[in-house]
């Protein structure tokens, strides 16, 4: 994978603020599905590409579904991180016997084939266990302010 430095040109014209425009496009090797990162933090994923620009969804976007795991517990608890209307993330589909606690760091597992493994998604803020539900959930917050980022990297695949 190659790293392509990109400037965030602003949020797209959606009401949730869950997507953003980048100043790099297909002429720079950017493709739909490329991961957008800042350091080890996952910022989003490329959704649309034109020659000179691209549109990406933040990980807090409602369309964002990410296979994740907890790196702070020995059993590597897994689940699916789902964006919540541009403001937060919920980790769902956690088995009842799996260990997870407040403050745990959640990273991409790579099992979805979409996101590279090991990118930081967020930190657990609360655990939700409903007695009538077979699976539990966890609320998460991003560890960096997504809306204050101005420069990011796009993980592009090298041309064949």
From TrEMBL:
Domain Rod shape-determining protein MreC beta-barrel core intervals: 8-155
Entry keyword annotation includes Aminoacyl-tRNA synthetase: no
Record bears the keyword Repeat: no
Highest rank taxon of the organism: Bacteria
Family according to the record: Belongs to the MreC family.
Pfam hit, one: MreC
Coiled coil regions in record: none
GO cellular component, one term: plasma membrane
Name the record gives this protein: Cell shape-determining protein MreC
GO biological process, one term: regulation of cell shape
